[in-house]
Fold this protein.
Amino acid sequence: MAPMETREAPEQRLWVHGTESEAVARPLTPRAVHRAALDSGGLPFAIPPVVFIAIPITFAWLNAPGAGAAVVTALMLVYGLAFVYCTGIALYPQKVRLAWFALCTLLLLGLIPVLGPDVLYMVMFQAMTHVLLLPWRWAGPTMVAVCLSVFVLALVLGIYVAAGLAGMGMLMSWGIGYGIRQQLLQEQLEAAQHRNAVLAVAAERERIGRDLHDLVGHSLTSLTISAQLARRLLDTDPEAAREQLTLIETTVRQALADVRATASGMQHVRAATEIASARTVLSTVGIQAEVPTALPPLHDDLAELFGYVIREGVTNIVRHSRATRAVIHVDESSVTVRDNGIGIPEGADRTGLRGLEARVALAGGRLEVRSDETGTRLHAAVGPAAPSPRSPGSPGSPA
């Protein structure tokens, strides 16, 4: 089959938009920061609250007009600009976000000497920078602590507007942070669902590959044997050759139906049908077959799994073993296929056995393959460990 192509799952998201690799590659320039703010979708919502910086600016000019008020105005405008573009900085790596948060905090601390208690009016902005720039595990506790501290201090100082802004800022910031957190979780869920879909496609392709190998390999082996036998019998026994040609036609039709069913996920393999097929195939090549005349009750999944084990074992016997005798044993929890041939040749393709091992493991069982010059033994068990059956006169010792 052609190499499987899969799309990689999306990378871990940093914020509402953008991945870690995009954040690292984004240049830290005014144009790039502005573009990031637009990409985040938060820029239109960050601009309106900036009007509240007019409150401390107004108090500065009312209390002490002059150079001090001009400094306050300049610092507040810089802070307002830094606050607006927190939405863009949120798409950068954590170290950039922490540096921007430190810048905003230092600007506020720098305003204390010139604004005094009026700096408490800025609590709403500072609360929002917490949830926009800090990881949520830090932002939530620190934002609540800052808002509560300012709320109490404003009440003590009698600055009731600042106390109201502290309460409003805490509620708004919590809502913004919660929304960001939910968006992150939603994107992580979508990424996980995408990865699961990719893995499901890969698993289905692997299943189809295993099934096609088992079906086509078994059928082609039977066709090869029947064709060789028909060629040898064509002159000496035309009637027997005609029977082999009829068998070839039946096998081809069945193989075509099996391939179509496998491609549509409707292929059903059963231990009973594989034992009947094994008896015919082995007798055709002159191998004495000792197979069960009746099977124990098996669940459909177990009957299908054992059917694949029997099919692979018989196919290998016909292809490689040069055996004269083969035994198939089935009980409630295990199946064994063994022969008295020369074993699996060194360097032989074991694709079928590897696929079978994966199939058995997926069912919660284990597959044992023993092969040497005395023969090959294929044993699959599901559930509690099952002893290896050895019927009297079984061919060869377990390999």
Residues 1-17, 386-399 have pLDDT under 50 and may be disordered. The longest strand covers residues 365-372. The radius of gyration is 38 Å.
